[in-house]
Amino acid sequence: MSQATDTETVREDGIIDSVSGPVVTATDLDARMNDVVYVGDEGLMGEVIEIEGNLTTIQVYEETSGVGPGEPVENTGEPLTVDLGPGMLDSIYDGVQRPLDVLESKMGTPFLDRGVDAPGIDLEATWEFTPTVSEGDELEAGDVIGEVPETESITHRVMVPPDSEGGAVDSIEAGEFTVEETVATLDTGEEIRMRQEWPVREARPAVDKETPTVPLVSGQRIQDGLFPLAKGGTAAIPGPFGSGKTVTQQQLAKWSDADIVVYVGCGERGNEMTEVIEDFPELEDPQTGKPLMSRTCLIANTSNMPVAARESCIYTGITLAEYFRDMGYDVALMADSTSRWAEAMREISSRLEEMPGEEGYPAYLAASLSEFYERAGKFENINGTEGSISVIGAVSPPGGDFSEPVTQNTLRIVKTFWALDSDLAEKRHFPSINWNESYSLYRDQLDPWYRENVAEDYPEVRQWAIDVLDEEDELQEIVQLVGKDALPEDQQLTLEVARYLREAWLQQNAFHDTDTFCSPEKTYRMLQAIRTFSDEAFSALDAGVPVEEISSIDAAPQLNRMGVAEEWEEFIGDLEDDMESQLRELY
Amino acid sequence: MKEYQTITEVSGPLVFAEVDEPVGYDEIVEIETQQGETLRGQVLESSEGLVSIQVFEGTGGIDRNASVRFLGETMKMPVTEDLLGRVLDGSGNPIDGGPEIVPDKREDIVGAAINPYSREYPEEFIQTGVSAIDGMNTLVRGQKLPIFSSSGQPHNELAMQIARQATVPEEAAEDEATDEPGSDEDGELGEGADDEGSEFAVIFGAMGITAEEANEFMDDFERTGALERSVVFMNLADDPAVERTVTPRMALTTAEYLAFEEGYHVLVILTDMTNYCEALREIGAAREEVPGRRGYPGYMYTDLAQLYERAGRIQGREGSVTQIPILTMPGDDDTHPIPDLTGYITEGQIYVDPALNSQGFKPPINVSPSLSRLMDDGIGEGLTRGDHADVKDQLFAAYAQGKDLRDLVNIVGREALSETDNKYLDFADRFEETFVDQGFDSNRSIDETLEIGWDLLSALPKEQLNRIDEELIAEHYREDIGEQVEATAE
């Protein structure tokens, strides 16, 4: 158990004084800030957010229709905590870690009823525990004491709680245990169970934060190729509606090479979460070949679920991520969308009648955002292992205007920026990440990895692609005025090369079985093939071949088929040969 | 039930009253004025000794001596299958002179959220008969797909066309095999289902539309016989604005009952969401809340989500709720908070375009910014046709390219463009003339729609079709059309 219960004292229940949507005030409630309380006769879960004299303000995580003054408020004396232990993977939670499948069977209806609580992990299930320490070993907080095969692909490491005093192992044994049974005792008398609790608003401790040097390989060409994210890095995906934020997030959740994925659907669509629930168990993890769901934990607080739980779901997600990080895993957390989270803060803030900051958002918006993103990083854990949390936050700026407060405050923190563009989306260029506006500040620190693991000249080839795309951007302005045919031949050819970069390389079909995942090697080879075309084409041009003839060779349009080619190594090799011979035939 | 004569303040649509017993949040209130008129309202804020009440019918006639009764329950909608064919006002009372409604159940209109775990992912194609929707932005059962329009556009005609024509093809055979609870009692509905796939029960929620618009809808419903399978909720422009906040909830509660209890496939048309949001703003202002963007309340996203998210399918339940909300974008600006927040909640949007309308295209749907997020799983082999996705992608890309060239051609003229560019220009024109402009009365099957798509694409050189699988090109590409175009060009 966490420290919250250590200091538990008998606390007085309160009486509801007023109700206004998710905000309830109570009198005579003896509570500390952020304590969890049960509100009203139905026992709706809430959290203390303001204390003023005898009046306590509570945000309620459930609908408050029908709740009235005079009803009781019961204090648990604990802050909002999550249950940590085996059983979190392959599950789907709401914003306060109630498992939605358990809620469905407990409520007996497909609609979310009120006042039903359920523990975050199954208290009755038993797990095969194998100790990794023996009696007499000295343990400190955070140390791993044993392992549990949690899912097909993930071994759960049972740890001494971070707030433990430590001590020597008195007794420990292998066997089948529930999460609440003692698996080890220390000589201090402390009993260690598989289940831990941790308050969501508090970061779990770590020794040190390090500079990330390994990329989170996403299998998406534009991301791996141009704007990579590091394991332990932070990224933002802002974009207006319909520009493909959710598909981009889901692609990362499916194909990125993290050990654990925590996917937080914060105030988004119900059907989208259903899609994830239906799709993921059928999909294979490209690294291990095991079902994707066995490394995934979903948190779904859809837009019509209570707004206060939307505010907390981000914290629930990051706390689960930190727990897996402590085991030494690389965790990727997708938050879709942080704007909805910010709006939940705004909604509650306005019900509290706080003085609003920019666009009605509370003045502490920037602080809350940076506090959240700072929980990402590559860490040296207190047990000596290394783990990382990469955070990818979608942002939904109103009207697609990036100058609004949530986008701006996010950009001040994150180091990778994938700007989604509605013009590209309208042309059905997906992923519609704008290559002129996006950036990644991790490029330099990740280059050694790419040189070593993909190709020695990876950074150079990438720079070539960027230069061509930049040049195209400038030329397009002229083309808009005078037409393509008015350009000199070499510039026309540059446009042709850039077109292949856009259509064959940057575009990637998330719904195509093969194209949906592209390894860094394939990403590199595809780029190289386009560069081969470019080199050969410019040689032909120098030899006096007209650009029209160059661009009409049969082989070139085949570049567009590289992404969907299954035997891509062979396909690209042949294609390069074809292009070379066809172009050389022209002169 | 306690009665009070303790009104302390009347302000806009709000009434404040002192109470000596606790009153629940969202509870229903009846206020009887001294003239004997009974007004209904809802508790907006309840605190010890004082409640604020939002009155649906407007606060005219209320004075300090009016009596206030708290009914001790939240707002309920009496639901029954017999509602089909009825016309109700914005608060759910019959206005068609028909018999009194004997409810099967009384359901809370706020409605609980569907557990995401219990949902079933929507992937059944709905054929609306409109090429620009079926071909390019396919609607599926359980989706919420709004129409983004602006004042003076024929969005109502489009909505009526969809309501009239929407079917799920090839469902009839399935229905006979599995005993569908919705069709056993209602003979006429069953017959319709046998003929041409299953039809939808239509719930029509009108919020603040003019009497003339309402008549158009009613005439159309009566003319086509659609009224028998419809429930109509009418809050007209001169009805109280505050009532508009409950009308869509009444409509959706009825829809959920018919879908998830009675097994109907329900199509909900809500018009006009802009009026609904104006009513929200009015209440927010009266309560002196801190306003969000453009004076709309900060909780408008949550509020709209609580309406739009009441669409979908549930595992193990027969029916479905599909929503088509209509909103008129102020100033045709989709960054305005109403379309903006809507777009973030709904699964796509259909744009009605004033420029296309002024050129006389019917329906004037601009396919480029339009989007259906659930399309990819609702089309393809076994659902529509195997070539649907590729054809759609290519049509989008080619149309975008043609439209890009239009700007250029204004400057340099057609002669300065290459032959291929000219083909794209022609393509964009013909796409609008044949694919989009089909008229409000034509009902195209998905096969017809895709064949028109191939006709258009075949006017482009084969090697330009880079989004389509080569085998499909071999199967469908019309060599003769390409040559014809070539011939006429020369």
UniProtKB/TrEMBL annotation, chain A:
Signal peptide: none annotated. Component of the A-type ATP synthase that produces ATP from ADP in the presence of a proton gradient across the membrane. The A chain is the catalytic subunit. It is found in: Cell membrane; Endomembrane system. GO terms for cellular component: endomembrane system; plasma membrane. One of its GO terms (biological process) is proton motive force-driven plasma membrane ATP synthesis. Its EC number is 7.1.2.2. ATP binds at residues 239-246. Transmembrane segments: none annotated. Belongs to the ATPase alpha/beta chains family. This is A-type ATP synthase subunit A. Pfam families: ATP-synt_ab, ATP-synt_ab_N, ATP-synt_ab_Xtn, ATP-synt_VA_C. SUPFAM superfamilies: C-terminal domain of alpha and beta subunits of F1 ATP synthase, N-terminal domain of alpha and beta subunits of F1 ATP synthase, P-loop containing nucleoside triphosphate hydrolases. It is a peripheral membrane protein. Residues 321-350 form the Rhodanese domain. GO terms for molecular function: ATP binding; proton-transporting ATP synthase activity, rotational mechanism. The gene is atpA. Its main location: membrane. It comes from the Archaea. Has multiple subunits with at least A(3), B(3), C, D, E, F, H, I and proteolipid K(x). Keywords: ATP synthesis, ATP-binding, Cell membrane, Hydrogen ion transport, Ion transport, Membrane, Nucleotide-binding, Translocase, Transport. It is an enzyme of class 7 (translocase). It catalyses: ATP + H2O + 4 H(+)(in) = ADP + phosphate + 5 H(+)(out).
UniProtKB/TrEMBL annotation, chain B:
Keywords: ATP synthesis, Cell membrane, Hydrogen ion transport, Ion transport, Membrane, Transport. Residues 377-476 form the ATP synthase A/B type C-terminal domain. Transmembrane segments: none annotated. It is found in: Cell membrane. Residues 171-194 have a biased composition (Acidic residues). Residues 167-194 are annotated as: Disordered. GO terms for biological process: proton motive force-driven plasma membrane ATP synthesis. It holds the Pfam family ATP-synt_VA_C. GO terms for cellular component: plasma membrane. GO terms for molecular function: ATP binding; proton-transporting ATP synthase activity, rotational mechanism. Residues 129-372 form the ATPase F1/V1/A1 complex alpha/beta subunit nucleotide-binding domain. Residues 7-72 form the ATPase F1/V1/A1 complex alpha/beta subunit N-terminal domain. The keyword Ion transport applies. Component of the A-type ATP synthase that produces ATP from ADP in the presence of a proton gradient across the membrane. The B chain is a regulatory subunit. This is A-type ATP synthase subunit B. It comes from Saliphagus infecundisoli. The lineage of its organism: Archaea, Methanobacteriati, Methanobacteriota, Stenosarchaea group, Halobacteria. The gene is atpB.
